[in-house]
From TrEMBL:
GO terms for biological process: phosphorelay signal transduction system; regulation of DNA-templated transcription. Keywords: ATP-binding, DNA-binding, Nucleotide-binding, Phosphoprotein, Transcription, Transcription regulation. Pfam families: AAA_lid_14 (PF25601), HTH_8 (PF02954), Response_reg (PF00072), Sigma54_activat (PF00158). Residues 7-121 form the Response regulatory domain. This is Stage 0 sporulation protein A homolog. Residues 141-370 form the Sigma-54 factor interaction domain. Coiled coil: none annotated. The keyword DNA-binding applies. CDD domains: AAA (cd00009). InterPro entries: AAA+_ATPase, AAA_lid_NorR, CheY-like_superfamily, Homeodomain-like_sf, HTH_Fis, P-loop_NTPase, Sig_transdc_resp-reg_receiver, Sigma_54_int. The modification 4-aspartylphosphate is found at D56. The lineage of its organism: Bacteria, Bacillati, Bacillota, Clostridia, Peptostreptococcales. May play the central regulatory role in sporulation. It may be an element of the effector pathway responsible for the activation of sporulation genes in response to nutritional stress. Spo0A may act in concert with spo0H (a sigma factor) to control the expression of some genes that are critical to the sporulation process. One of its GO terms (molecular function) is ATP binding.
Length: 446
């Protein structure tokens, strides 16, 4: 961040002093506002994005402790440097214990203050970097689960070689996140990580997406286009849902892996390619081989090293931290203030089975944040507004069961857990309701 983008608010009821401080700070290029009243300063902090407040400790309308406390309540991450006379160093030290960044003694050399300001700026830049990394949808959160820890360790090891990797696991468990992690840990990290979802394209389109085409290669090919394999030059190609590639496309990929060159569609020119291949699937490739839908030779070629990522329900020790992580990540993205999680909601989230895995957990949190109007995430919002968007791997029977379960739970809550009334409203007998509660594993609040 350039100094001009670093916004400082100087608060001092002695105007002459705040003016002279602001001249010094501006001479270094910082953007500075000054304010003589603490109450006004608080208003300004609420309406403008400051990076630092430099505040006098003794002011008429509010003492430094109180102002510091109110600033930190409003904006926890906003740093405050306390300015004080020589006589009240003890108070300034106390203020640091309460969250001030540092203090500056009025009679000292102003370069001391400038030094502190540049420290705040540097730390700010570092935290922003960390935030940006953890805001990426490719960020890999560490795990407390033993199996997951082993997988991450193995991913780090395999990253050092050029081996092809096959990632197995249900939808939403983080296969793409792991593939990207392998790339980032490898020497290929200076080149690109190129993901392609084989399910998103028809056969012709997938091949053109992978290998590119020359202008006029087929109807609609109005421009020469570079394929993803070429874009992954030097880096990593990630083929998601590889089970959806047709036998023809599999042969072509196998040839590329052997010969290490491609031909764009509509051209005979050989273009040398060098990349690492990571594939992923949530289907049983072995069964597909038996049914003749997947080539055995291709399977062996892509699965030199296989990692099976566990479902979220098998790593329950991670759920609580993940919930807190996504609450922070998503609320920052949506520009919402810190949010609290109601304990009943956490209990529910810890018990839930997440058929859609981490993606589903993330979606649930996002929905809760949108619905929360008072800074608290509540269980009732989740259940009352459950949208019926299902991951595309259920049978109709399973979807029906989920919908029934959600509706019965909603009615039970509405009827304050009164079983006969609930059965009545649902148009079933009490006995049928009991059966449903058992079959669908419905949670009845006591
Ligand atoms: N370890 C993790 N830390 C933080 N976020 C994660 C982690 N694993 C997965 N996610 C998040 O969960 C979501 C699903 O992850 P990802 O797309 O990698 O799953 P997938 O297994 O590749 O899914 P699909 O099979 O449907 O392609 C993403 O939004 C991703 O950011």
């Amino acid at each position: 961040m350039k100094n001009e983008a670093f916004q400082i608010l100087v608060v001092d009821d002695e105007k002459a002093y705040s003016d002279s401080l602001s001249i010094i700070l501006r001479s270094e290029g910082y953007a500075v506002d000054t304010e003589t009243s603490s109450a006004k300063a608080l208003e300004m902090i609420g309406s403008k994005e400051y990076h630092l407040v430099i505040s006098d400790f003794m002011m008429e309308d509010m003492d430094g402790f109180e102002l510091l406390k109110m600033i930190k309540e409003k904006k926890k991450e906003l740093e405050v440097i306390i300015v004080t006379g020589y006589g009240s160093i003890k108070n300034a030290v106390e203020a640091m214990k309460k969250g001030a960044f540092s203090y500056y003694i009025k009679s000292h050399d102003p370069t001391e203050l400038l030094h502190e300001v540049s420290k705040v700026k540097r730390i700010r830049a570092l935290t922003e970097e960390v935030h940006q990394a953890s805001e990426s949808s490719r960020y890999l959160m560490r795990s407390k689960n033993k199996k997951m820890q082993e997988i991450i360790e193995m991913a780090e090891k395999v990253a050092q070689s050029d081996t092809n990797v096959l990632l197995l696991g249900e939808s939403g468990v983080g296969k793409e996140v792991i593939a990207n992690y392998i790339h980032e840990q490898s020497n290929r990290k200076f080149y690109q990580f190129i993901p392609v979802n084989c399910r998103s394209y028809s056969k012709t389109l997938l091949e053109s997406e992978l290998f590119g085409h020359e202008k006029g290669a087929y109807t609609g090919a109005t421009e020469t286009r570079i394929g993803k394999v070429e874009s992954a030059q030097g880096g990593t190609l990630f083929l998601d849902e590889i089970g959806d590639a047709t036998l023809d496309t599999q042969i072509k990929l196998l040839r590329v892996l052997d010969a290490k060159y491609i031909e764009r569609i509509g051209s005979n020119e050989h273009i040398d390619v060098d990349f690492r291949l990571i594939c992923a699937t949530n289907q049983g490739l072995k069964e597909q081989i038996q049914q003749g839908e997947f080539r055995e030779d291709f399977f062996y070629r892509i699965s030199t090293f296989t990692l099976e990522i566990p479902a979220l329900r098998e790593r329950q020790e991670d759920i609580e931290e993940m919930v807190r992580f996504f609450v922070k990540q998503i609320s920052r993205k949506m520009d919402k203030q810190a949010l609290d999680i109601e304990p009943e909601l956490m209990t529910y989230l810890l018990k839930y089975s997440y058929p859609g895995n981490i993606r589903e957990l993330k979606n649930i949190i996002e929905r809760l944040i949108v619905l929360s109007s008072d800074g608290i995430l509540r269980k009732k919002d989740l259940l009352a507004n459950q949208q019926h968007s299902y991951s595309l791997e259920y049978t109709l029977k399973e979807v029906r069961a989920q919908a029934e379960k959600a509706y019965i739970e909603q009615m039970l809550r509405h009827m304050d857990g009164h079983l006969s009334e609930t059965a009545n409203r649902l148009g079933i007998t009490r006995r049928q309701l009991f059966n449903k509660i058992g079959q669908l594993n419905i949670y009845v609040e006591k």
